[in-house]
Amino acid sequence: MKLVLLLPAGAILLLCTSQLPVEATEYLTLCVNRCRNYTLPELENSVELRTTRRLTVASGNVTSFDAPLIAAFGRLSYLEVWPQRSRSVDRFFVPPYLRTLILRRTGVRELDVLPDAAYQLRVLYAADNRLTDVSQLHRLRALQQLNLNNNKLRQLSWTAFDGLDELRELSLRGNGLRVIDGVVPGVQLPLRKLVRLNLSNNRLRRLDVELWNMDRLELLELEGNSLEQVGSSLVRLQALKKLSLRDNRWDCVWLNRTLQWMEGRRIQLVGGIDFACPRPGSARVGGKLCCVK
After folding, report:
1. How does pLDDT run across 115-157, given as a tens digit for each residue?
2. How far apart are CA 46 and CA 76, in angstroms?
3. Which of 39, 94, 223, 290 has the lowest CB atom count within 10 Å?
């Protein structure tokens, strides 16, 4: 048995629910004002689902959230999905009318986005899943916040975000990214409203900042990569206020020059410092960060 209590500020406390269906039956535990188990045929007859705009899928054993299933939830503006019972979600259909979609550790492998729909989605939180390809996300043109932390995006093209002109926050932390390509010479990246960009805890060896067109970028997180330098193009980020750099392989000349530039611009070093410099030939600059001579 499970029950959900709605707490202040939208917090949800899961305590107990109704009897689970037999294991062979596909079901979902849906929470509006309370939690209840639904078999899939029962969804279409639920008056409660037809009248709600916010829904939490607290549990279940469904491996594919396809278009008919999503439509059975009604015309939602907010949908949050928690891990499915002992299973991962293979595909998840993103409906055009949603404004917020949160996929919490669902193991989702693929997002299904319609090619010609006018999407209203503002917030997509899909951290801690199994996504390998996000090339369809450029269709979500109203998107303002995108979190793809801790997926499996080993290689990524900036073209995946082409057309996301309203994007304010982009987080790609912990994906094992080795390269972010797709920058065409002479064509600048269009993310002009981006304020926060998190590329930390990947495996990046190079970063082509020269073609970034991020006039409003205030926070850039680069710690935990294998970067040696990012050239002199950081000076183009005129709105930059905070920069994280620790745990990389910075060239000492570049790092020293960059820290001086940051001090002159009053840009705050965030994300911590290097407590030790274990690599051969490494040194410490300013008592804060390690570099390689």
Report:
1. 999 999 999 999 999 999 999 999 999 999 999 999 999 888 8
2. 14
3. 39
**Beta-bridge mates of residue 171:** 147, 198
- Token readout for 98 is 């949603």
CA distance 180 to 205: 10
More confident residue, 243 or 44: 243
For the stretch 19-43, pLDDT in tens is 545 455 889 999 998 999 999 999 9
Radius of gyration from C-alpha coordinates of the chain? 22
List the beta strands (DSSP E) in 153-288: 155-157, 169-171, 179-181, 196-198, 219-221, 242-244, 268-270, 282-285
- Provide the token pair at 148: 């793809």
Q: How many CB atoms lie within 10 A of CB 185?
A: 7
- Please report which helix (H) or strand (E) contains residue 58, including its range: strand 54-60
Q: How far apart are CA 164 and CA 190, in angstroms?
A: 8
Please state, rounded to an integer, the average pLDDT across all residues of the chain: 88
* Residue (of 157, 267, 261) closest to 221 by Cα position: 267
Contact 187, 165 (CB under 8 A): no
* CA terminus-to-terminus distance, the chain: 62
Alpha-carbon gap, residue 102 to 114, rounded angstroms: 18
How many Å is the maximal CA-CA distance in the chain? 69
Give the residues across from 89 on adjacent strands.
Answer: none
User: In terms of CATH architecture, what is 4-292?
Assistant: Alpha-Beta Horseshoe (3.80)
Q: Position 111: which residue type?
A: L
CB 113 within 8 Å of CB 92? no
Beta carbons of 150 and 172 less than 8 angstroms apart: no
Q: How many CB atoms lie within 10 A of CB 178?
A: 16
- Domain positions in the chain: 4-292
